[in-house]
Amino acid sequence: MGSPYNGGGGGGAGAAGANATSSAAGNGGNGLQWLDGNYYAGGGGGATFATSNPGAGGLGGGSAGGIGSAVPTAATVNTGGGGGAGAYISGSRPPGGANGGSGIVIIRYTGSQRGTGGTVTESGGYTYHTFTSSGTFTA
Prior knowledge:
5 strands, two-stranded antiparallel ribbon, mainly beta
């Protein structure tokens, strides 16, 4: 069983987060690889108070957990990854967890471009419309 001073990692879209051990916080679970080759929705790492080993963020935008009173880092934007956990410090206000990464929408269809909106790319016989902020797709 892990130390009460280390937290487990958050789950990702493709794998559960790891449990804490007595010497380190748990890593975040990995996200899933999409058709564009990138990973999305990785879990955030667990925080630690007693060791210098916070949990790493999962593949796909997850960020590392915090150490003691240090504020954990936010997840990578446009990945849907989880933010790192914050650690509790006795007698003080904990910094809290970090923000998760903003999401992304990818629309894919076969053939050449037939719609508008987002960033348009063509590869392998498919057309992709990628949105990293609010937008409109028109077919």
